[in-house]
């Protein structure tokens, strides 16, 4: 089978590194004479680096979504995306037919799955935040069937950042809008495989709802991009960055994009929800913090009756505005300064606290500068500790997900939307290691543990580096995760796009080729 284009690796690749680094992101922003408004609208472009016997192979392919095919066929944008409303949108016929109930006015969304990669058993999917995911072949990058979550669970959208348990089950969350008069956040579990005897095997048919959390507001559910898990709990943060359902239901006729249906209510609070995985019940205490906007959870864990969780938060929603293509023009590094720097915040929430504690007392008993103040009505107001600033696209050693951990690998974003460095941050000592070179725009760094790993950072870090100067060739960079020193790089003399998220698939997790 064709493995892609081979490139020379300069340096020393660990011999155990065998498998595929598979990444996703927006790749095509212009179709015919039409251009999307927002960077998150671009047609999904998958790319992969295959590591085989010391060699590195590169390939890339557009996701052949229905959206891609409709657009290419029409030679213009005909399907609406996050920042671009398109006319006529073939998906919207369904919308026009079903205008009778508010619950039916949420139109069919795009299947342009450009954000991340998800694994179910032996299968891989490109994901976004709508109700659709697209199966892909991780070796050839071919597009396979479309899966509609809403056929299996009542959700209108689901996150692109699912979690996995040690048995390989997927845990994900989605929002169910005005269904049977209620808007809720639904937590669901997908097993890695379907029973052997089943004819048309689909793990989605075996999807199970774990529980649902009612939205505080019927017509203004929170927007969320990720959630957290610990050994015993699911951590869901209901932020005051919200979808406006009436605006969404009328967006098409008003000629505005989906992005304009999102609003930050800075006068509101941010509510924390903790769901016990065993009982599937929510912890009844009301925990909250000040208004904020955030996208990525880093990790969460339990310690001495507390839940500790780390997220990257903002003081406004300028992140989404920054990625309008008009703001990402030629001199964007100079012209497009962020108004809110990404801040890595740690919340320490006491689940088991002294019920007789006085109003006004801090219930955090761990050594920490965070606070959780008991209020008159029994709710608890939490204030975080700032771990560091200027990082985004965080990754961890996933073997430590839900557990006490030390290391975050992330991109460094200072005063520009495009990262110029990657970092390794020790959440305990606050030490930070950097990697950066002139003209380099590195992608989300992915940690791959070595097979004989004993410590959390025994392994390597992979990142794709795009050059700000188009005359220079991009490369795949391999760093030693412990020292953050370069082990080597494969210079790939191709046009490479800036991407979002991805995963490393070890060789042993790849289906053996039968074709
Ligand atoms: C199309 C569409 C959506 C798409 C959202 C996207 C594409 C978000 C991407 C977020 C990223 C990449 C964040 C990074 O931190 C919504 C608003 C869910 C709902 C309406 C239809
Ligand atoms: Fe993300």
Overview of this protein structure:
By secondary structure, this protein is mainly beta. The protein contains five helices and 39 strands. Strand 37 (475-480) and strand 38 form a beta hairpin. The relative contact order is 0.13. The model is unreliable at 95-104 (pLDDT under 50). It binds retinal (RET) and fe (ii) ion. The site of retinal (RET) has 14 residues, from loops. Pfam families: RPE65. Keywords: Iron, Metal-binding. Its cofactor is Fe(2+).
Anisotropy-based shape: globular
Tally of separate helices: 5
Based on CA atoms alone, the radius of gyration comes out at 22 Å
* Uncertain stretches: 95-104
| Mean pLDDT reading | 93
Strands, count: 39
Task: Give the termini separation.
Answer: 9 Å
Q: Characterize the largest beta sheet: strand count, sense, and whether it forms a barrel.
A: 6 strands, antiparallel
Oligomerization state: single chain
Strand content bin:
35-45%
């Amino acid at each position: 089978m064709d493995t892609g284009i081979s490139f020379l690796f300069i340096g020393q690749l660990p011999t155990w590194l065998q498998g595929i680094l598979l990444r996703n992101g927006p790749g095509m922003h212009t179709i015919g004479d039409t251009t999307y408004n927002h960077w998150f609208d671009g047609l999904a472009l998958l790319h992969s680096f295959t590591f085989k016997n010391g060699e590195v192979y590169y390939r890339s392919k557009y996701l052949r979504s229905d959206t891609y095919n409709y657009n290419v066929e029409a030679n213009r944008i005909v399907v609406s995306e996050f920042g671009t409303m398109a006319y006529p949108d073939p998906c919207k016929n369904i919308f026009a037919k079903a205008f009778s109930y508010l619950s039916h006015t949420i139109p069919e969304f795009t299947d342009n799955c450009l954000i991340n990669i998800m694994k179910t058993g032996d299968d891989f999917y490109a994901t976004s935040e709508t109700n659709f995911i697209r199966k892909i072949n991780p070796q050839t990058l071919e597009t396979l069937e479309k899966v509609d979550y809403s056929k299996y669970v009542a959700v209108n959208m689901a996150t692109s950042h699912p979690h996995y348990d040690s048995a390989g089950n997927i845990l994900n969350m989605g929002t169910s809008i005005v269904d049977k008069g209620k808007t809720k956040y639904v937590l669901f579990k997908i097993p890695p495989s379907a029973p052997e005897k089943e004819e048309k095997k689909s793990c989605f048919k075996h999807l199970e709802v774990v529980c649902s959390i009612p939205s505080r507001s019927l017509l203004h559910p929170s927007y969320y991009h990720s959630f957290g898990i610990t050994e015993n709990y699911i951590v869901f943060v209901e932020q005051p960055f919200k979808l406006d359902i009436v605006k969404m239901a009328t967006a098409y006729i008003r000629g505005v994009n989906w992005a304009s249906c999102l609003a930050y209510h800075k006068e509101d609070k941010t509510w924390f929800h903790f769901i016990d995985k065993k009982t599937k019940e929510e912890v009844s205490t009301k925990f909250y913090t000040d208004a904020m906007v955030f996208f990525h959870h880093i990790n969460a864990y339990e310690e001495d009756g507390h839940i500790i969780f780390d997220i990257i938060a903002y003081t406004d929603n300028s992140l989404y505005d920054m990625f309008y293509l008009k703001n990402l023009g030629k001199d964007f590094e100079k012209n497009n300064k962020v108004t809110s720097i990404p801040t890595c915040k740690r919340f320490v929430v006491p689940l088991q606290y002294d019920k007789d504690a006085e109003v006004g007392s801090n219930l955090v008993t761990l050594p920490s500068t965070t606070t959780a103040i008991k209020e008159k009505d029994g709710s608890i107001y939490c204030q975080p500790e700032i771990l560091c600033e200027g990082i985004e696209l965080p990754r961890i050693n996933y073997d430590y997900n839900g557990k006490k951990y030390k290391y975050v690998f992330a991109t460094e974003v200072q005063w520009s939307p495009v990262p110029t460095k990657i970092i390794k941050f020790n959440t305990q000592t606050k030490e930070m290691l950097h990697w950066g070179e002139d003209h380099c725009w590195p992608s989300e760094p992915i940690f791959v543990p070595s097979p004989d790993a004993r410590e959390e950072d025994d392994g390597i870090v992979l990142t794709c580096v795009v050059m700000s100067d188009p005359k220079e060739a991009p490369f795949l960079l391999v760093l030693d995760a412990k020292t953050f020193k370069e082990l080597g790089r494969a210079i790939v003399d191709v046009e490479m796009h800036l991407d979002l998220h991805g995963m490393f698939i070890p060789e042993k997790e790849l289906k053996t080729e039968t074709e």
